[in-house]
Amino acid sequence: MTVVVGVLPLTACSAVEGLARDALRGGGTGAGPCPSVPEPFPDEDAPPAPDPEPEATLDPFVARSVRATITAVRALPAVQRAAETTTNAPSTTADPACSTRWVTVDHFSSRFTVEMDADATPGQAGAVPTTMAEGLAWTGVDLTLTVPAGDDHVASVVHYDGTFDQRIPEATSTAVADGLATLAATPHVTGLDASIPYTMRVDYGSLTIGVDSTDQAVLDRVRAVIDTTAFRDTTLHGSYGNGAKP
Q1: Of the candidates 65, 43, 171, which has an alpha carbon nearest to the alpha carbon of residue 110?
Q2: pLDDT (average), residues 128-138
Q3: pLDDT tens-digit profile of 74-88?
Q4: Average per-residue pLDDT in the chain?
Q5: Are β-strands 108-116 and 79-88 bridged in parallel, bridged antiparallel, or unpaired?
Q6: Residue 35 within any structural domain of the chain
């Protein structure tokens, strides 16, 4: 068994997730049948083609949803600070089925960063992604949620990547937060970083744990704690290798 000193990566992956997520991220605007446009007279200039790089504007509905959601998150108990950045990167291309029509595709992306109080409970941390899912309904939203180190635990970070086009049960998000809190208070654990994929399948996410020892007995005790958490079925690699899921 190969032991990685200091950082023990535990990673799960699904080959189709990235492809599916990329396919779902963009939203487009099109039109109906190609309109009939009269030919210009010889001495007339042809109408200019649309700008292939249109000015980025934020859809009013998206803007309202983001503002309402960040306000709701900031009002949650034990939230120390919360910020968001929302961008749109539109692109315009000619419609291959109609030479007189151009299609503009909007690519909205929002990134939320939330830091909890160091003594936040798992229920309080779990309320953040659940609240966000109630106000947002597209996959182009990511959350980085941090619980800082406290007197009896190390810091933990969890990333929710593109999960906000669905309801996130509070029981699920609280179980994730509880698992991280349990591991953060485990002896010899020095750091935690987890990712939850857009499917909300924790077992297809990833977990990286820093451990200050290479002693096999210590690693076994940490592994035993993992098996009591929401990450117990996550495909593990590196020093905790347990095979791969199909």
Answers
A1: 65
A2: 92
A3: 999 999 999 999 887
A4: 79
A5: antiparallel
A6: no
Asked whether residue 37 is domain-assigned, the answer is no
Amino acid at 159: H
Contacts of 50 (CB under 8 A, 6+ apart): 92, 102, 104
Instruction: Classify each residue of 56-73 as buried b or exposed e, where b means 16 or more C-beta atoms within 10 Å of its C-beta.
Output: eeeeeebeebbeebbebb
Q: By three-state DSSP, how is residue 212 classified?
A: coil
Which one of 19-23, 55-59, 202-206 scores highest in mean pLDDT? 202-206
78's CB contacts (< 8 A; 6+ apart) are 116, 117, 119, 120, 121, 124, 125
**Domains of the chain: total:** 1
H runs (alpha helix) in 136-210: 170-184
Q: Is the confidence at residue 221, as pLDDT, over 60?
A: yes
Q: Which residue has the tokens 């899912």?
A: 133
Question: Residue 216: in which H helix or E strand, if any?
Answer: helix 216-226
What is the helix (H) or strand (E) element at residue 189, kind and residue range? strand 189-196
Domain that holds residue 70: 7-24+51-240
Neighbours of 3 (CB within 10 A): 13
Please report whether residue 201 resides in a domain: yes
Contact in structure between 182 and 176 (CB atoms under 8 Å): no
Asked whether residue 32 is domain-assigned, the answer is no
Q: What is the token pair recorded at 12?
A: 């799960």
Q: Are strands 79-88 and 156-161 parallel, antiparallel or unpaired?
A: unpaired
